Inverse folding.
């Protein structure tokens, strides 16, 4: 399974976690019962996002000028957490790739306007790292 598909799986797990009190491990177990396989990279991303959620949300809040986290759709917050995690903690993924993949997920699961919103927040974050 390629990395895009694994990111998509991780996004689905992150999104699912917003609607349950289950632990990350229980969410993975449930998904394994429903899916044929979950990639190792999917698990790494999902567990990493769960572990660093508060820090990721701080970063998103800091760079989403004029938007409270509670106003950002659950789809977009899931995509943003995933991308910010990759940018911040996955060394072998270039920032531009993480941003592009997040924008593609937003186009697929959200709206074109939301894709621009996601791109803007991630762009602001990566510029702040320079």
């Amino acid at each position: 399974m390629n990395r895009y598909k694994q990111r998509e799986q991780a996004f689905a797990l992150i999104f699912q976690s917003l609607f349950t009190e289950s632990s990350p491990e229980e969410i993975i177990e449930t998904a394994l019962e429903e899916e044929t396989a979950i990639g190792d990279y999917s698990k790494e991303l999902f567990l990493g996002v769960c572990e660093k959620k508060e820090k990721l949300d701080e970063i998103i809040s800091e760079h989403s000028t004029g938007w409270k986290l509670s106003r950002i759709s659950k789809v977009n917050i899931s995509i943003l957490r995933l991308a910010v995690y990759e940018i911040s903690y996955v060394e072998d993924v270039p920032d531009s790739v993480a941003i592009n993949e997040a924008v593609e997920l937003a186009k697929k699961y959200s709206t074109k306007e939301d894709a621009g919103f996601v791109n803007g927040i991630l762009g602001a974050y990566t510029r702040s790292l320079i």
In short: The mean pLDDT is 94. The chain is about 75% helix and 0% strand. The longest helix spans residues 112-128. The radius of gyration is 14 Å.
